[in-house]
Structures are given as C-alpha cells and as structure tokens.
Amino acid sequence: MRPIKNPDVLTIYESYEEKYRTPLLKIRELIYDTAEKMYGSESITEELKWNQPSYATKHGSPVRLDIFDQNNIGIFFNCRTTLVENFKMQFGDLFSYSKNRAIILDINEEIPENELMACIETALSYHKIKKHLNKLN
C-alpha cells in the first residue's frame, strides 16, 4: 500500500472501523494504480473535500471515498457530471448507485476491480472525454 502523505487524510482513514477501512484503502490503491497507468506516478492529488478523502488529476473530475451506510461504502463523483449515468448504462446492476452521485459497494462482497477501475479511469479523464460521454446520454 502506498503511504498516505496528507495528515488530514490519514486521520480520516484511521478513524474508520476496520470493516470500512480495508475496502476503502483497496479502492484508494485502485485509484492510484489507474492514475499512474494513465498519467504517471506524480499525477494525482490526495486531499480532503467535504471531510472525505478526494483524488483528482488535472484532466479529471474528483473521486471521493467514504462510508455510505452501515454495510456499504461509496465512491462519490461530482453530481453535475454525467459520470454515474454513464456507469449505469455501461455496467447496469453490477453496481448499486446513489442517484447521480455515487457507486455503492457492499463491504461484505468482493469489489469488481476491473469494472471499478474502468469507472475510475473515466472519472480521472472526464474533462478530456466529457463531450463524447454527453453524446451517449
């Protein structure tokens, strides 16, 4: 696992119960792996937004992680984008969704890594591809 350099982000992860922290940190690694593959190792920023760990590239829309409810975690996206709408079209009921703002994952189930990485890649490149995505809707 990559070290968490931002002390505020580290504090948030340390505050989560293990049952949430483990899958959230796994998704954090998927975000870093995806950003590194797309743009190189220094391409992503990690900070707090709305008291949630947030990940962004200069070409994309931020991706935030947090607990959603007792049994679920959320991968949150800017609700003013078409990202979640596109994920629904592409992946259907593979994921659960919260309106147009989040993918919801059950902490007791396996994370569909390849499909989630595709969603992360779309978000991290959103500003480069949004015209194409908007045509799909």
Topology (SSEs and partners):
Elements: H1 7-15, H2 18-39, E1 45-49, E2 52-56, E3 63-69, E4 72-77, H3 83-91, E5 96-98, E6 102-106, H4 113-124, H5 126-136
Antiparallel strand pairs: 1-2, 2-3, 3-4, 4-6, 5-6
Helix pairs in contact: 2-4
Domain YdhG-like: 22-124
Organism: Sebaldella termitidis (strain ATCC 33386 / NCTC 11300)
InterPro entries: YdhG-like
Brief overview:
This is YdhG-like domain-containing protein. InterPro entries: YdhG-like. The chain is an alpha+beta fold and 137 residues long.
Strand order, sheet with most strands: 1-2-3-4-6-5
Overall 3D geometry?
globular
Round the Cα radius of gyration to an integer and report it.
14 Å
- By DSSP (H or I, 4+ residues per run), the number of helices equals 5
Into how many domains do the coordinates divide? 1
| Poorly predicted segments | none
Helical content, roughly? 40-55%
Task: Describe this protein with a few key phrases.
137 residues, alpha+beta, 23% strand, 6-stranded antiparallel β-sheet, 5 helices, single chain, 6 strands, Aspartate Aminotransferase, domain 1
Structural commentary:
Residues 22-124 form the YdhG-like domain. It holds the Pfam family DUF1801. This is YdhG-like domain-containing protein. This protein has 137 residues and is of the alpha+beta class. The protein has five helices and six strands. It has a single domain (7-136), classed as Aspartate Aminotransferase, domain 1, CATH 3.90.1150.200. It has helices at residues 7-15, 18-39, 83-91, 113-124, 126-136; strands at 45-49, 52-56, 63-69, 72-77, 96-98, 102-106. A six-stranded antiparallel beta sheet has the order 1-2-3-4-6-5. Helix 2 packs across helix 4. The chain is globular, with a radius of gyration of 14 Å. The mean pLDDT is 93.
